[in-house]
Amino acid sequence: MLIAEKQAPWDGGLGVTENELLTLVMSMANRLKRFACHLCGDADGAEDLVQEGFLRALASRTQLRDKSRALPWLLMIVRRLFLEHHRRAERQLHLLEEDASLMDPPIGNLEEEMLRSTLSEEVSRALAALPEEWRTCLLLREVDGFSYEEIAQTVECPLGTVRSRIARARAQLLVSLHTYAADRGIDQGARR
After folding, report:
1. Cα torsion for 30, 139, 70, 52, to the nearest 10°?
2. pLDDT tens digit string along 14-33?
């Protein structure tokens, strides 16, 4: 019998087996990668987040008692990892800014540029300008089709907070895109 087919002896039969978790992750891999890419804006970083998220999920698989809740649970893990990495990077950047000579010049990433071009530049800029909490809730709702309850579980906040974040994100996007259109003289005649 393969190790992956065994259930850990200390979990008392609760949670999912390694094999079940691997099957769940593989079936949701594209959604996890897309979500991670929206968070970090980088395909390589997204892949790393998903892989690290899988390792974390594997270590805490006994917490997942209902397989139907696997996607929100996995997205929550990926989001937590992103926030941890983001905070760590901010601390490191602060240290590096004190000694600017330690920083390497930025290098372009063609794959990242191609992914970003899938949405129009205006929408991408407007989304990037949103606070992370608003952007995450909005993308989970509009791109991934999550219910408000699933989003609340994923981002670990009350349902009312999710609703207000999505409403604020939509309002801010509307303002940003109207401003963009007005700056370029695009006719808003369709809006009556």
Report:
1. 60
2. 678 888 888 988 999 999 99
